[in-house]
Amino acid sequence: MRKREDAHAMNRRDFIKGAAAVGASVLSVPALGQALGANDRINIGFIGCGGMGTHHVRRYKELSRNPKLNIATVAVCDVYKPRAERAKQISGGKLFHDYRKMLQMKELHAVLIATPDHWHARMSIDSMEAGKDVHVEKPMTLYLNEAKAMVEVARRAKRIVQVGAEGASEDQYWQARKLVQRGALGKLIWSTGGVYRNVPGGDWNYPIDPNATPSNLDWKRFLGPAPDRPFDRERFFRYRKYWDYSGGLAHDLLSHILAELQVVIGAEFPTRVMASGGIFAHHDRETPDTFHVMADFPADHTISLFCTQATERGVEFEVRGQEASLTFDGDTVVVEPERPYAKGKKELRVEPQPRSDHDVNWIECIRSRKPPHYNAEMGYRAMVILCLANRSWRERKMMLFDPKTERVLT
After folding, report:
1. pLDDT tens across 247-262, in order?
2. ∠ at Cα 212 (249, 239), nearest 5°?
3. What are phi and psi of 174, to 5 degrees?
């Protein structure tokens, strides 16, 4: 299984070679590390205009009407012509078929990438090497080696990178973070969370456009670094069900919960990761419909993540410490003392405060050059956990990791 993954994951040399070809032909705007002033308009392009990509185009077009943000939607790119034309109409920007051509726009400052997982790393690295800041939808990458390559380029190129786990910008998690850091829970022991859906017809079975043909859908460009396969509408419109283009439940759904937990307890590399689950209800896919992850960390703490597409009942989001546990009542943070430490202590409740949402945070950070709420460093640590979890499930073994050398041991 490992050989198959390595055969189709782009290695670091592939990244840098492809990225350098783009970067050499582009004048970087702004200069590396240079902040944009309030009067400088930020021009944004969009790569991938499916359901989530179109949502982003609409959202940023709406934000562009706010003069305080001073942004513009100037370009869109997609391999499926009807989607690209729809996004062009919404954004008012230029239309591109090849994202590398879009990156050659001298006036372009930032790109938002909402393609299938298998393109995230290459497009992000190409964009950074071309001098653009990046918002990349979660997961940050499909494979672990891609995540390491991507974070190294972000460090070197001094680009702002935000990963699209929008919950990481919700203030209740930052209020919870303050409580954890000041020791309100005592020694952290165990944290849990999950996503639970019950879709009788099968989650991710998005509508398939029967009018999609090789004449209006560039199949080879969609495949990109993935294995070569015959034209298949099912794989294009329902790509999350297939390992070639997706990390399944770990990458699509558990990435959200993990991002929120990282905000609360801090982002660490794991020491060991294991996963269980299977295809229990929906047998029309390669990726499991039920998936559970356990990860241990150097701080002597365990995270347990749970996800299913066949039941709506599950384990709640909770951070358990030796002296108290933290959970949420809506947006309110609730800290409840453990029984042996409860004497003289009452339940603590903390309300969230105003905070920039994920989209506005990215725009603010493009100007200030400060790290976003959920940045490449945090995304990299998340990908170590999620990618090792997928390998654990597929290879039926526990995965060990060395946080100091950042290497997989098994």
Report:
1. 999 999 999 999 999 9
2. 10
3. -75, -35
Residue 293 DSSP SS3: strand
Query: Residue with structure tokens 């956990």?
Result: 385
Sheet holding 301-308, edge to edge: 348-350, 332-337, 324-329, 318-321, 188-196, 301-308, 290-297, 272-278, 399-402, 407-408
Superfamily of domain 2-165+360-374 in CATH is NAD(P)-binding Rossmann-like Domain (3.40.50.720)
Could you state, in order of their start, the residue ranges of all structural domains in the chain? 2-165+360-374, 168-202+245-355+387-408
Dihedral angle sign, alpha carbons of residues 264, 267, 269, 274? positive
pLDDT of residue 28: 36
The confidence score (pLDDT) of residue 178 equals 98
Structure token digits, residue 76: 């869109």
Looking at residue 13, what is its pLDDT?
44
DSSP assignment letter at 78: -
- With tokens 């950070």, the residue in question is 365
- On the CB side of 105, CA atoms within 13 Å amount to 24
Beta strands in 170-211 (DSSP E): 188-196
Q: Select from 69, 404, 118 the least CA-distant residue to 246.
A: 118
For residue 387, the SS3 value is helix
Q: Which CATH class is domain 168-202+245-355+387-408?
A: alpha beta
Question: For the chain, which residues score pLDDT lower than 50?
Answer: 1-13, 15-32
Q: What is the pLDDT of residue 410?
A: 84
What pLDDT is attached to residue 220? 98
The conformation of residue 327, written as its DSSP 8-state character, comes to: E
Q: How many Å apart are CA 58 and CA 44, to the nearest integer?
A: 12
Average pLDDT along the chain:
93
β partners of residue 350: 333
256 CA to centre of own chain: 8
**Terminal alpha carbon distance of the chain:** 13
